[in-house]
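Consortium newsletter contribution from the modelling node. Members have asked for a concrete example of what our holo predictions look like. Here is one, prepared for the zinc ion complex that several groups have been discussing at recent meetings.
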Amino acid sequence: MTHKCQALVLHCMDYRFIGHLRDFIVSQGLKDQYDEVSVAGGVQGIVSGTKHVQEYILNQIGTARRLHSIQDVYLINHLDCGAYGGRTAFGSDQEEHDRHTSDLQKAQIIINQRFSELNISMVIARLNEENGGQEVDFEVVSGS
Ligand SMILES: [Zn+2]
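And here is the predicted structure:
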């Protein structure tokens, strides 16, 4: 008995993004076609987390590959992430954005070192709370 799905999605556990994340993932053609790993800080756990957390995430990817033959991995970090100290931990919006871009690219390299055949997509989510609304923009980041 084999079950296949297209992708694994790794994202931060932050509740503010969950509904919007699902909508984004569906917009990528992945409705009911992805495994999901939700951890505080998203790729931070791979890049600068403890060895234990890094191995946990890589093992989840390996399990998705073995059991479900995934081809793609979506790495989704977000701005104003509490695991990174929130937006106030950075000197500027650009500095914060650069840090997430850098961490996503480092995570891509680490994942591809172990699973070279997986296609990695990297995304930065930004919550907009202007005018009392709540929207999320998803920006695709290019690879390293
Ligand atoms: Zn977060």
